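quick one, 109 residues, struct below
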Amino acid sequence: MPKHDEGIENDTLINYHWFLLKKLSSILQPFYEATIYGQGHKYTLYHWFTIIDWFLRYLFDVKEDFKELREKYGDSKEYTYLETSAFASWEKCKQYYKYADKSAAYYAA
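---
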């Protein structure tokens, strides 16, 4: 890391950083696709519920992937942070899934 008085010209990304950025990009891509897919007036609650169902499974896998990476590279703060973030995302998705499951609209869709 550059010192406080040094410019960013000395701050470069190493292969590890590029690996993390690529992994994050691939994990975030489905969020972008779901956002685009769900836009507009032509989609119904059925589509929204399908997306939530898929994300629940997807986020579980992402959470487990980061857990494995954290266990493998225990000294990496990045994997601890990413595992925690993935877990929080999965919990939020579970919360919305439970709200949907309690709704009569879920069964009507």
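Residues 45-72 form the longest helix (28 residues).
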